[in-house]
Queue: 4 jobs
Job 1
Amino acid sequence: MEIENLTKEMRNYAIEHDKGKSPSQVAASWYGDDLTYSGSGKTIFIILPTSGCSWALGDSGGCTMCSYTSDTTLEPIADEDVIELFENHLNRHPYKEDYENGEKIAIKLFASGSFLNPHELSINCRDEILKIIANTKEISEIVVESRPEYIKEEIIDDIFEIIDDKLFEIAIGLETSNDNTRLNKINKGFTLKDFNDSVKLISKLNLEKGYNLKSKAYIFIKPILLNEKEAIDEAIESAAHCEKTGVSRISFCPATIHSKTLIERMWRNGSYKAPWIWSTIEVINTVRSNFKIPALLDTSGFGSRRGPYNCKKCNKDLKHEIIKSNLNQSIIDFDCECKSEWIGEVKHSNMNYSKTFIKHLPLY
């Protein structure tokens, strides 16, 4: 497929120029307010150092918007180093004090790939990290990310042997319920059926084995070669599919343009721009008004040159409004004079639709 040739060329260019990072450079963490399954609470976010996403480093070349090869070591890492860095970052945050004050505490583990893939994070490393969390009474919810092919009954059985009755959520980058967009514009490499089967397995294990297991879908707002209206409609349709399939909750991820990706190349050539913030609000408000599934909206990159953007007057205020609304799942009620320009673009999207044909061109 031509999309794979393009993403592989971008991936190879990124690896050649980035050379990988040290484990301590990759590892990161932050702590803050978040919506847990028990309501508003606190979450510890930790990025684990890994050698990289197998999908991005394999023959596929990875996803068109993903810069995971720039966020990894590209070299094997000793398990003890990963575990030490995890503990160091875990102990940086005041979650114990907040727990004593009645806060619910969750932890989200990012591996710049699939937490459940033993070739990215070894079984020994995975289990040692989970044992530490299992023995940390303050943490009641664990969130990880994985592609569908690594979500297997035997892996989940092993995990619950360790964590017992703690809640365990597996987030899957569905991106869209449209197979054509996911395969040919995002280059995700799995079908809607693959995603549905993973969600069904999670539901089955909850029912048959009594696990406290949840599923989450990431939905990407505005892949390449979609105009503004199509991006809005497809994100809403994807949310409807997730609710129908039994997904526990969804998280909308509006496009942000990362370095050395195919989406960046198209942006530099004038063939792509990130969505309006108004478009993301249209999506989240519609979903919260019409569906019951809890929905979050990520605000990474909002108001920046490479991220969702409205105008200088409202970017910052809207970002804060969205963050607040994520905690109480409220409708966002806001107005600005730039909204009329967005309405005009959405109304006439088909006239402005990009006719750029994806062909093999020099990348830089």
Job 2
Amino acid sequence: MNLFVSLKYLVALDDHRHFGRAALACSVTQPALSNAIRALEASFGISIVKRGRNFAGFTVEGERILASGRKILREYELLQQDLRSSKDAPTGNLLIGAVPTAMPIAARFVAMLQDRHPGITPTLRSLSSIELESGLESLSLDMGLGYTERMDNSQSQVRVIPQYIEHYFLLRKSEKSASATAEGPRFGPAITWREAAALPLCLLSAEMHNRTIIDRAFAKAGVHPKPVIETNSISTLALSVRAGRVSSIMPGALVDDVHGLLDIEALPLVEPSIEVPIAFMVHDTNRPSRTLEAALAFAEDPAWVKEVAGHAGALAQDDGGRPRGGAERGDTRP
């Protein structure tokens, strides 16, 4: 039995919660994955997986082996990166999670990071806030981009690297297509949250933290609208605005990313003014990998600071109706 391979399969089973999908992720057959886990159980003399017609979770002992397995695999990855890398040329994998509303910024980050450090192979996953926090806690994620406000009352040992402040906009179909620009939707006049509540809205569904922020803003405005469409898909927000009579609400980073939808205009939402800090978060371990060290350094690099400031979503626009760059670094602190 190859211990590292068996532990890798066990971790994949936890990540995917399904034997078939875990086997696919590991590029092996399902019987091969199942046999490796059975061999692991035989080696320890205990049951690790609760078995039924479908995957039913792990036993208490299995959870302990899984936690230790993740640490063993992490140490193995750290050792491999130490042996393959130098300080100026990190080599290895880097797993980054981001909440859906921050994915445009995260995508820019991994692209620029990989361009600067060709030896790094980033994997970027769109995750809910709960999945992101769990991934950081279990060390299954190297770093995450998400809402720092959720960590205020958390006991987790998390290091925070502030990135930008999230502002909010109402997206609606433009009354005049000529008002659009080649770069994307034109900004319209400000609208209050109370006025927005009177419109038919397509919003993210209740399990998304972004929806919690939006509901909180409406509550501050003294209104409690019921959306006509709910979704957990970011792309559905803008596409439903184009296809129907609904409006939607998006943070600035998503508005900035809506290129080519020239029949859409974005209206800054005011009264109340909502500003939500977004940051990179990492588990505060004493021994980051070579690739994570490079990523953390880049997250504070002037080139990246300028990039994120230009695409995080501003509340102002230039004379041509195009959104200006976001706040300066000094204004992005939580």
Job 3
Amino acid sequence: MSSSAPTTSAPTTTGSGPSALSRWFGFRTPSLRFLYAWAIADLAANVLLVVTGGAVRVTDSGLGCPTWPECTSGSVTPHPAMGIHGVIEFGNRMLTWVLVVVAVGTWVAAMRYRPHDRTSRWLATGIALGVPAQAIIGGITVLTQLNPWVVALHFLATMLIISLATWLVYRTVPGAAPQARDDSPMGRLAVALAWLVYAVTWVTVYLGTVVTGSGPHAGDEDAHRNGLDPRMATQLHVDAVWALVGAAVALILLAVIARLSWRRTALVFGAIIVLQGVIGYVQYALELPETLVVLHMLGSALLMVGATALVLHAARFGRTAAAAEPGDRNTGAALPATAGAS
């Protein structure tokens, strides 16, 4: 992938004159700001999928549609006998079509954006292909009666898509000039710590799925658990969390002391860890109330956004545009609230 940053921006008009429909949706000659908006929508939709998937689990609605790709035998919609569980699971499945629309819109915008940006195209393609892959994994999840290891794979696949979507958002921030790679000892240490935080975040998220697979919220009252001791699984997850805290604190201190330009990103990530930790301990003390479990899953998605942003900022990954497009006043634009750069 090329990380070079073109210095020109996309044209806004063509000689032939775009149709009213093309002008309205902006796909004929998409601007960088247009592509950026679709990238944010892609990221938000996948984070929303984590929340709705959490709702399915805590309400025991994982088999509200007991087969796939149909909901019930001979019908794509839930049978009234499935009650609220069928409605919840069917609603979560319908979100897939929202993801399809957003992913395709992002892909078309990335493909039509000028000048060509290979990295943005590959990212948009990977995210778009992730949607049908997720649907297939979700189908296997149902057909295996919510096998906890397949459920974990379903969640981790969403985390990967969220990480790629975060990269695409970072890549397409309007008006964000690329910076030269910092090869000083501090810069190299920051990159190493950022990658460490990213890796430990993945370990922590994975162990969280192991805890879920051993606990009460398996998606259905009769679903199999993974057979592990919930207390032991939880302790292992907590150990990973504290390892993440240590790595994040080291990175935050380095960013603040060295006054690195992305120190605000590190501080925001630290705040997410604190909030996620509080939710985790409280939900454990209260024996896993449904609302806190869903919030904890949302926190996992935000952690992945933040960890990805740290690597992108620390390693100075290239961006699509070196200068603001006409009308872009926000020359210090950043990632969405979870991962802004100063």
Job 4
Amino acid sequence: MKQNKGNRNSEGLESVSHAARLAVIAGAITTLGDALSTIAAGLALEDELKENENNSNEIDKLQKQIDELNYEMKQLKRMSR
């Protein structure tokens, strides 16, 4: 009987060991998924910032053109007087 109890204990420990290994593997996979998600969010944010920067550059160019046209209009008004 003592030998039978010893087998049960070792089987129980073995099954706990497998469960612990699976828990560690599951935790590692979850952590990897979280890391990939964070990287993807960072890349999306970087793309958004670049797009905003490009839009800002375009707005600056348009403002410069508007300012130049206003200057030319003022010059034309002065010439017509």
